[in-house]
Amino acid sequence: MKQSKFWAWVIFGLGAAYFIVPLVATFEFSLKMRRGHYSFDSYASVFSDPAFQATFGYSTLVGLFAILVGVLIVVPAVYFVRLRLPHLRPLMEFVTLLPLIIPAIVLVYGYIRLYNSSSLLPFTGSALGTDILLVFGYVTLALPYMYRAVDTGMRTIDIKTLTEAAQIMGASTATIIARIILPNILVAVLSGAFLTFAIVIGEFTIASLLNRPAFGPYLQNVGANRAYEPSALAIISFIITWGAMGMINVLGRFAPRTSARTD
Amino acid sequence: MTEDQFLRVDALTKSFGTNQVVKGVSFGFGKGEFISLLGPSGCGKTTILRMIAGFETPTTGTIRVAGEDITHLRPNQRKLGMVFQAYALFPNLTVGDNIGFGLKVAGMGREERRARVEEMLRLIGLPGFEKRYPYEMSGGQQQRVALARAIAPKPRLLLLDEPLSALDAKIRVSLRGEIRAIQQDLGITTVFVTHDQEEAMSISDRIVVMNAGHIEQMGSAHEIYNRPQTRFVATFVGQLNTLPAATFGPDRAIRPELVSLAPRPETDMTLTGTVADVGFLGSVLRLRVDVEGAPISIDTFNGHAPPPQRGDTVTLHLARKDVLALGA
Ligand SMILES: Nc1ncnc2c1ncn2[C@@H]1O[C@H](COP(=O)(O)OP(=O)(O)O)[C@@H](O)[C@H]1O
Ligand SMILES: [Mg+2]
């Protein structure tokens, strides 16, 4: 008993060190910008860089749109497949896994070929068009996570009976999704949203190849040209991503409560 | 419209693939009646109710409410109310918003809605519960809220699919009384699905006994119990003793409460048997008596006289007119 616990702790410690040591080292290095003693100079330098603000703002906006489009596509799709076409669920599972199998670089080359300025849908012909294409690209990248989050959320409520209860009282499908389904899976949708945001904020390949001023390419640029700021940025990115993950955990407590009682 | 035409179902069938689960069902009922669809699990009761609600499309046949053909209307166009076995309250909405949901969808204003919700909560005996959430309430309370939610928009028909099955026995009995009282109070035409014959008999004006997708018999609880028209109805509804064929001929039966140990004014024949078992049910004793090899159960009041013992020879009294001939 004691023995097995000891080894469990050793293995846990090794695993934790694997993640924590580089993180601590990076953090320590990011504090060394001023010679001789620790300071937050590199962070000040990062935050005062106009390019940081611009790219971070841009990626945040793109992330918000990716979340919006993702929710508008995924929630009704999962709802209708679960309700009316349950036999299509395996296909849906497979399709939503594709973005994990197909590298982003393949995806973006496909986009460029399909939507170049001489195509029928010349998305890349204008900056706005390219922004839209970028949003769709991120919706695709986040699809596996958004789909699973929403699907898990819908599994915890009896969507068939709730839908029928609302229908018989005269509600339309749009009303049912907006007033009954969405509020009951809000926690799941938000966790999908934070995952989407975490993916978008650091994404490099698509943004870079579409030549958009996003945070990912900025990170790469700073990393190639500066000494201490990249470490500071790494820590900042980490905090943002972990903040998003932490929010998912916090939100889990607000999941709908079961009311199946017999008394 | 004649009296029995408010809810009119004609030649209704439903197949899932090649499996026909409703096999030509027709019935008509009057406004304000409480009707039960009674039958064993899997006989198609829920499927019929869901076709009335519009959740399933009949393979053939028509459904009319107040003379209007609703067979192909969408559920949200039918103006019906429904209560489900699993309560199905909206977990994200308060009790007040649950009850007010149908009213809001119909476009009723806030003040009018609030008043109606309050009225409904008083009706179901839960005044002041507007702000509660479903998970804060017991199953019985939730099902009462579900009932209030279904009747708040004044539906033309109230449909209930085994609404008591998820509840404990005690609440089941008290809530069925409440449902019946509210139904009579409002005069709302109600279709109640159950597999529990006692439940159906205790609250219905009329009962439709179903078996394997078709109707066996329709009538009041009294008619169904006392004059079962088929062997299925006779055996499914209430207890039944098969009488020894040697004396009575084949397929003759009698209810346990119509056999007694003492003669009664109407009894005109006797049987002799041996007590095989004595069961004590409180105010009633249930004896199992062996008559010519056929076990006959009889119910007798637990009076002052000491009960018969196992192995005693007893004389049973019954009336010929109470003997049921079980047909097909
Ligand atoms: N959606 C469906 N698809 C296929 N078979 C079904 C479906 N719904 C019900 N059935 C079948 O129809 C029969 C009757 O079901 P149901 O109406 O629920 O019976 P009851 O309510 O009397 O217990 C059952 O054999 C059931 O398996
Ligand atoms: Mg059923």
TrEMBL record, chain A:
<feature type="transmembrane region" description="Helical">
    <location>
        <begin position="185"/>
        <end position="210"/>
    </location>
</feature>
<keyword id="KW-0812">Transmembrane</keyword>
<feature type="transmembrane region" description="Helical">
    <location>
        <begin position="91"/>
        <end position="112"/>
    </location>
</feature>
<comment type="similarity">
    <text>Belongs to the binding-protein-dependent transport system permease family.</text>
</comment>
<keyword id="KW-0472">Membrane</keyword>
<feature type="transmembrane region" description="Helical">
    <location>
        <begin position="230"/>
        <end position="251"/>
    </location>
</feature>
<dbReference type="Pfam" id="PF00528">
    <property type="entry name" value="BPD_transp_1"/>
</dbReference>
<feature type="transmembrane region" description="Helical">
    <location>
        <begin position="7"/>
        <end position="27"/>
    </location>
</feature>
<feature type="domain" description="ABC transmembrane type-1">
    <location>
        <begin position="56"/>
        <end position="251"/>
    </location>
</feature>
<dbReference type="InterPro" id="IPR035906">
    <property type="entry name" value="MetI-like_sf"/>
</dbReference>
<keyword id="KW-0813">Transport</keyword>
<keyword id="KW-0997">Cell inner membrane</keyword>
<keyword id="KW-1003">Cell membrane</keyword>
<dbReference type="GO" id="GO:0005886">
    <property type="term" value="C:plasma membrane"/>
</dbReference>
<feature type="transmembrane region" description="Helical">
    <location>
        <begin position="56"/>
        <end position="79"/>
    </location>
</feature>
<keyword id="KW-1133">Transmembrane helix</keyword>
<protein>
    <submittedName>
        <fullName>Putative spermidine/putrescine transport system permease protein</fullName>
    </submittedName>
</protein>
<dbReference type="InterPro" id="IPR000515">
    <property type="entry name" value="MetI-like"/>
</dbReference>
<dbReference type="GO" id="GO:0055085">
    <property type="term" value="P:transmembrane transport"/>
</dbReference>
<feature type="transmembrane region" description="Helical">
    <location>
        <begin position="132"/>
        <end position="150"/>
    </location>
</feature>
Automatic annotation (TrEMBL), chain B:
<keyword id="KW-0067">ATP-binding</keyword>
<dbReference type="InterPro" id="IPR027417">
    <property type="entry name" value="P-loop_NTPase"/>
</dbReference>
<dbReference type="GO" id="GO:0016887">
    <property type="term" value="F:ATP hydrolysis activity"/>
</dbReference>
<keyword id="KW-0813">Transport</keyword>
<dbReference type="GO" id="GO:0015697">
    <property type="term" value="P:quaternary ammonium group transport"/>
</dbReference>
<dbReference type="Pfam" id="PF08402">
    <property type="entry name" value="TOBE_2"/>
</dbReference>
<dbReference type="GO" id="GO:0005524">
    <property type="term" value="F:ATP binding"/>
</dbReference>
<feature type="domain" description="ABC transporter">
    <location>
        <begin position="7"/>
        <end position="237"/>
    </location>
</feature>
<protein>
    <submittedName>
        <fullName>Putative spermidine/putrescine transport system ATP-binding protein</fullName>
    </submittedName>
</protein>
<comment type="similarity">
    <text>Belongs to the ABC transporter superfamily.</text>
</comment>
<dbReference type="InterPro" id="IPR050093">
    <property type="entry name" value="ABC_SmlMolc_Importer"/>
</dbReference>
<keyword id="KW-0547">Nucleotide-binding</keyword>
<dbReference type="Pfam" id="PF00005">
    <property type="entry name" value="ABC_tran"/>
</dbReference>
<dbReference type="InterPro" id="IPR003439">
    <property type="entry name" value="ABC_transporter-like_ATP-bd"/>
</dbReference>
<dbReference type="GO" id="GO:0043190">
    <property type="term" value="C:ATP-binding cassette (ABC) transporter complex"/>
</dbReference>
<dbReference type="InterPro" id="IPR003593">
    <property type="entry name" value="AAA+_ATPase"/>
</dbReference>
<dbReference type="InterPro" id="IPR017871">
    <property type="entry name" value="ABC_transporter-like_CS"/>
</dbReference>
<dbReference type="InterPro" id="IPR008995">
    <property type="entry name" value="Mo/tungstate-bd_C_term_dom"/>
</dbReference>
<dbReference type="GO" id="GO:0022857">
    <property type="term" value="F:transmembrane transporter activity"/>
</dbReference>
<dbReference type="InterPro" id="IPR013611">
    <property type="entry name" value="Transp-assoc_OB_typ2"/>
</dbReference>
